[in-house]
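Problem 12. The chain below contains 192 residues. Write out its predicted structure in token notation.
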Amino acid sequence: MTALPQPLTQLLTVAEYAELGETESGYTELLEGRLLMSPSPVPDHNFAAAELLVQLRPQLPDHLEVILDVDVDLQLVEPDQPGFSRRPDLMIVAQGARQRVRHEGGMIRAAEVLVVVEIVSPGSRRTDHVAKRSEYADAGIPHYWIVDLDEPVSLLDCHLAEGFGYQDSGSITGAFTTTEPFGVHLRLGQLL
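Solution.
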């Protein structure tokens, strides 16, 4: 793990942010060139992310894969400008995105992401429902699922509606079943 440079006196591009590597505690995101520090998640949060992965993986079409807790370049600005990078709890990406990063470096790009998933934490409710919802929509990520672990566990299924950002039909509890962007059935109660 890498300690953050002290003091950080400039706004960072996504490439400069990627060069920082992992931090010593918690994780960081990049918001218009500024580092945003977040604490490490609690055990229920990590359990829910892992359980989602377990439920999703066998249901994914062959051309998609699920990845936990890595940075995504939102591609909201030119590469030489102060950038935006978020670290969703889980994302479903085009197969080959991971291999591209391995060979070229950098990070997963928003254009490679089909579904991004955030699990609401006590300090992230507004960020997940407002800021990230707006940023992920602006980045053109087609689907955004917001999972809330407050009982009963719920999922808000947001999808891009051309020219209108994300649209949703309200939170779902119990089981989440959809055919878009692929057929999936999730047992939400098993996330706790």
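Discussion. Confidence is low (pLDDT under 50) at residues 1-5. Students who got a different answer should revisit the alignment rule from Section 12.3.
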